[in-house]
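Backbone-to-sequence.
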């Protein structure tokens, strides 16, 4: 049985597992509420970050690495274009951009705007990080002007990577998506596997509902 430790970026993994119809167990990890004291989690990843995947004696971390592992180990899957496929370069680029280029700089902003002491929340690093996010989001916007999905006309694992990053930026209040990006997220999040992943990831589902309710309140 595949075990996934932690939600957050672990949502990418759960969504992919649902798309691939692979059985799994989600093991919650509460980093803010004492995850550092969780012995099973720390045995899986002594560095103490999520997500972590365990599969038949293999332990692997970093969400994009886990996605590539699952696709290679449990594929082949239509979610990953073959190297000779014309969509492969775009797929590979955006699979990694979703974390390294988009979610990572949002993390910097979240750490300061939400978690830092109030008098340290507006600083140079936050402004730099959000500038990086916005510039790299332009790559996504230009791609989506020509294709329905991020690597072409069919849904791939790169869409899981990018969709997570865009929803992360929006739900944390770090960025307001434009019409193109909102329409794209509506397409990808309408998939049945996304809905099943949300039902598995109850903390993520509750957070999304809380944000949606807040956005509907009159200003």
């Amino acid at each position: 049985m595949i075990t996934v430790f932690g939600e957050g970026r672990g949502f990418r993994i759960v969504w992919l597992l649902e798309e691939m119809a692979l059985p799994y167990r989600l093991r919650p990890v509460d980093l803010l509420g004492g995850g550092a004291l969780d012995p099973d989690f720390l045995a899986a990843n002594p560095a103490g970050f999520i997500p972590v995947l365990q599969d038949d004696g293999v332990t692997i971390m970093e969400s994009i690495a886990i996605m590539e592992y699952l696709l290679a180990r449990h594929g082949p899957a239509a979610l990953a274009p073959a190297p000779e496929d014309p969509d492969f370069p775009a797929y590979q680029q955006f699979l990694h951009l979703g974390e390294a280029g988009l979610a990572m700089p949002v993390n910097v902003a979240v750490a300061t705007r939400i978690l830092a002491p109030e008098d340290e929340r507006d600083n140079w690093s936050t402004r730099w990080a959000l500038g990086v996010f916005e510039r790299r989001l332009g790559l996504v916007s230009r791609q989506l002007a020509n294709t329905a999905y991020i690597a072409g006309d069919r849904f791939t694992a790169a869409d899981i990577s990018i969709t997570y990053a865009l929803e992360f930026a929006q739900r944390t209040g770090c960025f307001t998506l434009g019409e193109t990006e909102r329409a794209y997220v509506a397409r990808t999040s309408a998939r049945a596997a996304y809905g099943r992943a949300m039902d598995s990831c109850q903390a993520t589902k509750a957070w999304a509902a809380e944000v949606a309710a807040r956005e509907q309140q009159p200003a």
